[in-house]
Write a structure and sequence with these properties.
The chain is built from 7 helices and 5 strands; from the N terminus they run αββαβββααααα. The chain is an alpha+beta fold. The protein has a 5-stranded antiparallel sheet with strand order 1-2-5-4-3. A hairpin with a 2-residue loop joins strand 3 and strand 4. The longest helix has 21 residues. The chain is elongated and about 75 Å long.
């Protein structure tokens, strides 16, 4: 079963699958109605929905009818109306704001460049991986027959940018999140290379 957090950032994301809707390009919303239920039961329903879809559960103790509960990626607000049946809690999840994150800003411009040229049809996983590897080799070539820091700085920027851009396209192709996959890898490396064993040595983890 697909989880909301895994696919909410995809361009073809369909909010209806999760019984919600897109307020605009940047926000997904889902309504939870009281319908004569106790408020705590609605909170439990929301937390079950969040947990099942890859988000942390929420502490509702500070949610009031006056101020929305702002949790960064998530926000909730309680909307009172004339009668109990129409009262609702509105769950809002930030979907995509390219001005919030430099990686997202780059992706927006990169996809504009790609789509204007109809190049997406060529960007399968195999060819993106090959292109990334080739660009990494061109980066390496800058150091050939030079000392350890001998690459031309301008050429270094250009080749490094190519490596990053193909990496971002491959990431976007698979609906991956930049921060999630990098933080997961850092955590994995931290476990493989504990400071007590790895400090000051370049040995591989299975040689420590």
């Amino acid at each position: 079963m697909e989880k909301l957090r895994d696919i909410i950032r995809k361009p073809d994301f369909q909010a209806e699958k999760f019984e919600g809707y897109l307020v605009d390009e940047f926000q997904f919303q889902r309504l939870f109605f009281l319908e004569n239920r106790e408020l705590k039961l609605v909170y439990e329903e929301i937390n079950d929905f969040l947990y099942d879809n890859g988000y942390d559960k929420v502490d509702f103790s500070s949610l009031s009818e006056q101020e929305p509960l702002d949790l960064g990626e998530l926000s909730l607000s309680l909307h009172p109306f004339v009668n109990q049946e129409s009262r609702r809690v509105v769950l809002t999840i930030k979907r995509f704001d390219p001005w919030d994150n430099p990686v997202d800003r780059v992706l927006v411009e990169l996809k504009k460049f790609r789509d204007a040229r109809d190049w997406s049809q060529f960007h399968n996983s195999k060819d993106l991986s090959l292109a990334l590897s080739i660009e990494a080799s061109e980066l390496l070539e800058l150091f050939l027959w030079k000392d350890k820091e001998g690459a031309d700085p301008e050429k270094l920027k250009e080749e490094l940018a190519d490596v990053f851009l193909y990496g971002l396209l491959l990431m976007e192709k698979h609906g991956l999140d930049f921060e999630d996959i990098l933080m997961a890898k850092i955590k994995s490396n931290d476990e493989k290379y504990p400071v007590s064993k790895a400090k000051g040595t370049a040995k591989k983890y299975d040689e420590l």
